[in-house]
Design goal:
The protein is 25% helix and 37% strand. It contains four helices and eight strands. Strand 7 and strand 8 form a beta hairpin. The protein is elongated and about 60 Å long.
Length: 145
Protein backbone atom coordinates (compact mmCIF):
# COMPACT_ATOMS: atom_id res chain seq x y z
CA UNK A 1 0.00 0.00 0.00
CA UNK A 2 1.28 3.47 -0.89
CA UNK A 3 0.44 6.78 0.73
CA UNK A 4 -0.29 9.28 -2.01
CA UNK A 5 -0.78 12.47 0.00
CA UNK A 6 -1.01 13.70 3.58
CA UNK A 7 -3.67 16.26 4.51
CA UNK A 8 -3.50 17.96 7.90
CA UNK A 9 -7.07 18.14 9.27
CA UNK A 10 -7.65 20.90 11.80
CA UNK A 11 -10.70 21.02 14.04
CA UNK A 12 -11.93 24.37 15.28
CA UNK A 13 -14.65 25.88 17.38
CA UNK A 14 -15.48 28.45 14.67
CA UNK A 15 -14.12 27.18 11.38
CA UNK A 16 -15.75 29.78 9.13
CA UNK A 17 -14.16 32.66 11.05
CA UNK A 18 -10.80 30.90 11.26
CA UNK A 19 -10.73 30.13 7.54
CA UNK A 20 -11.29 33.79 6.69
CA UNK A 21 -8.34 34.63 8.98
CA UNK A 22 -6.15 31.99 7.27
CA UNK A 23 -7.09 33.34 3.86
CA UNK A 24 -6.18 36.88 4.92
CA UNK A 25 -2.94 36.07 6.80
CA UNK A 26 -1.60 33.12 4.79
CA UNK A 27 -3.05 33.97 1.39
CA UNK A 28 -4.78 30.58 1.40
CA UNK A 29 -7.19 29.74 -1.41
CA UNK A 30 -10.49 28.11 -0.50
CA UNK A 31 -11.19 25.09 -2.67
CA UNK A 32 -14.65 24.27 -1.32
CA UNK A 33 -16.78 23.92 1.81
CA UNK A 34 -19.63 21.75 3.06
CA UNK A 35 -22.02 23.42 5.49
CA UNK A 36 -24.96 21.89 7.35
CA UNK A 37 -28.36 23.65 7.28
CA UNK A 38 -27.65 24.69 10.90
CA UNK A 39 -24.52 26.53 9.73
CA UNK A 40 -22.06 24.08 11.26
CA UNK A 41 -19.09 23.54 8.97
CA UNK A 42 -18.61 19.90 8.08
CA UNK A 43 -15.57 20.40 5.86
CA UNK A 44 -13.48 23.12 4.23
CA UNK A 45 -10.38 22.67 2.11
CA UNK A 46 -7.77 25.39 1.74
CA UNK A 47 -4.77 25.40 -0.56
CA UNK A 48 -1.61 26.91 0.93
CA UNK A 49 1.40 26.75 -1.33
CA UNK A 50 1.39 23.23 -2.69
CA UNK A 51 -0.49 21.75 0.27
CA UNK A 52 -4.16 21.19 1.01
CA UNK A 53 -5.32 21.64 4.59
CA UNK A 54 -8.71 20.44 5.76
CA UNK A 55 -10.88 22.01 8.48
CA UNK A 56 -14.10 21.30 10.30
CA UNK A 57 -16.11 22.60 13.19
CA UNK A 58 -16.13 20.64 16.40
CA UNK A 59 -18.45 17.64 16.59
CA UNK A 60 -18.76 16.83 20.31
CA UNK A 61 -21.14 13.96 19.55
CA UNK A 62 -18.28 12.33 17.62
CA UNK A 63 -15.51 13.34 20.07
CA UNK A 64 -14.10 15.84 17.55
CA UNK A 65 -12.74 18.85 19.42
CA UNK A 66 -10.38 21.70 18.70
CA UNK A 67 -7.59 23.21 20.79
CA UNK A 68 -9.90 25.69 22.55
CA UNK A 69 -12.01 22.86 23.93
CA UNK A 70 -9.02 20.64 24.70
CA UNK A 71 -7.00 23.42 26.33
CA UNK A 72 -4.17 23.38 23.80
CA UNK A 73 -2.66 21.51 20.91
CA UNK A 74 0.08 18.89 20.69
CA UNK A 75 1.48 19.82 17.29
CA UNK A 76 2.49 22.74 15.10
CA UNK A 77 2.37 23.21 11.37
CA UNK A 78 5.57 24.53 9.83
CA UNK A 79 5.24 27.01 6.98
CA UNK A 80 8.30 27.69 4.85
CA UNK A 81 7.88 31.24 3.51
CA UNK A 82 9.80 34.08 1.88
CA UNK A 83 9.87 36.31 4.99
CA UNK A 84 9.14 34.72 8.38
CA UNK A 85 9.32 38.02 10.26
CA UNK A 86 6.70 39.67 8.04
CA UNK A 87 4.24 36.77 8.29
CA UNK A 88 4.65 36.45 12.05
CA UNK A 89 4.18 40.22 12.48
CA UNK A 90 1.01 40.14 10.34
CA UNK A 91 -0.43 37.21 12.29
CA UNK A 92 0.26 38.84 15.66
CA UNK A 93 -1.24 42.13 14.45
CA UNK A 94 -4.37 40.15 13.47
CA UNK A 95 -4.79 38.55 16.90
CA UNK A 96 -2.32 35.67 17.08
CA UNK A 97 -0.23 35.14 20.21
CA UNK A 98 3.53 35.28 19.74
CA UNK A 99 5.12 32.20 21.32
CA UNK A 100 8.68 32.56 20.00
CA UNK A 101 9.89 35.56 18.01
CA UNK A 102 11.73 34.91 14.77
CA UNK A 103 15.42 34.27 15.23
CA UNK A 104 18.28 32.63 13.37
CA UNK A 105 18.74 28.93 14.17
CA UNK A 106 21.65 26.48 13.95
CA UNK A 107 19.91 24.50 11.19
CA UNK A 108 20.13 27.38 8.70
CA UNK A 109 16.66 28.84 9.09
CA UNK A 110 15.17 31.95 10.63
CA UNK A 111 11.91 31.00 12.29
CA UNK A 112 9.45 31.74 15.06
CA UNK A 113 6.12 30.46 16.35
CA UNK A 114 2.67 31.88 17.01
CA UNK A 115 -0.65 30.49 18.19
CA UNK A 116 -3.63 31.52 16.10
CA UNK A 117 -6.80 32.78 17.83
CA UNK A 118 -8.29 29.24 17.67
CA UNK A 119 -5.36 27.56 19.42
CA UNK A 120 -3.36 26.06 16.55
CA UNK A 121 0.39 26.66 16.53
CA UNK A 122 2.30 27.70 13.43
CA UNK A 123 6.08 27.62 13.04
CA UNK A 124 7.05 30.05 10.31
CA UNK A 125 10.52 30.11 8.81
CA UNK A 126 12.66 30.98 5.84
CA UNK A 127 15.98 29.56 4.73
CA UNK A 128 19.18 31.39 5.60
CA UNK A 129 21.64 28.79 4.29
CA UNK A 130 21.57 25.28 2.88
CA UNK A 131 23.12 22.76 5.23
CA UNK A 132 23.66 19.04 5.00
CA UNK A 133 22.25 16.83 7.75
CA UNK A 134 25.83 16.28 8.92
CA UNK A 135 26.43 20.03 9.26
CA UNK A 136 23.18 20.41 11.20
CA UNK A 137 24.13 17.54 13.51
CA UNK A 138 27.56 19.08 14.17
CA UNK A 139 25.95 22.40 15.05
CA UNK A 140 23.35 20.62 17.18
CA UNK A 141 26.09 18.73 19.02
CA UNK A 142 27.88 22.03 19.69
CA UNK A 143 24.80 23.30 21.56
CA UNK A 144 25.39 20.63 24.20
CA UNK A 145 29.14 21.14 24.73
Amino acid sequence: MAIHEVFPYLRLRNTGEAVEWYKRIFGAEELFRLVEPSGRVGHIELRMGGTTLMFSDEYPEMNIAGPETLGGTTFAIHLHVDDADALIDAAVAAGATLLRPAQDHFYGERSGTFRDPWGHEWNVGHELEKLTPEQMQARYDALFE
